[in-house]
Amino acid sequence: MFRLAFRMTENAQDAEDVVQESFFRAYRQLGRFDERASFGTWIYRIATNCALDLVRLRKRRNQAPVAAEEPGDSVPELPSLDPSPERIALSGEVRERLAEAMNQLSETERAAFVLRHYEGLRLDEISQVLECQPGAAKHSVFRAVQKLRRALEPIVSPVR
């Protein structure tokens, strides 16, 4: 759940707050949980709502997220043990462009993309979390991927 919150908020401290708030809300609303539903889907929905609340609040206040670094992730993950300076610079540029592109996605697209590609949820699970039809969830993931590809294409295509 932390990864979901981190990818949605782009800040480790905010993600920790979202996770804590999610469990607090779940505890307060435990009596409203329908036992026929999946507990995992229910808790993901709460976490997604908490993260979206924070993202909306940040947009209303016109605040940019603080450094998009996971704890302990100060060195870019690269396949080589001794990356070239050019490779390090490119990785930083990709990370920045990805963060900017993620901020340009709609709330639904961002949530669907994070749930699919970072959390590994299936489309039917995403549709339950987002409370939409499976086709709408699939379309949201597709639109997010297309937008991210367009945003990253100028810097990634010369590398290929």
How would you describe this structure to a colleague?
The chain has about 160 residues and is mostly helical. It is about 70% helix and about 0% strand. Helix 1 crosses helix 2, helix 1 runs parallel beside helix 3 and helix 4 runs antiparallel to helix 7. The protein is globular. The two termini are about 35 Å apart. The mean pLDDT is about 80.
Which oligomerization state do the chains in this entry correspond to? single chain
Please write the CATH class name of the largest domain: Mainly Alpha
As for the number of domains, it is: 2
Main sheet?
A: none
Give the % helix: 55-70%
- CATH architecture label of the largest domain: Orthogonal Bundle
Shape: globular
Topology:
Layout: H1 2-9, H2 12-28, H3 39-60, H4 85-104, H5 107-118, H6 123-130, H7 134-156
Helix pairs in contact: 1-2, 1-3, 1-5, 2-3, 3-6, 4-7, 5-6, 5-7, 6-7
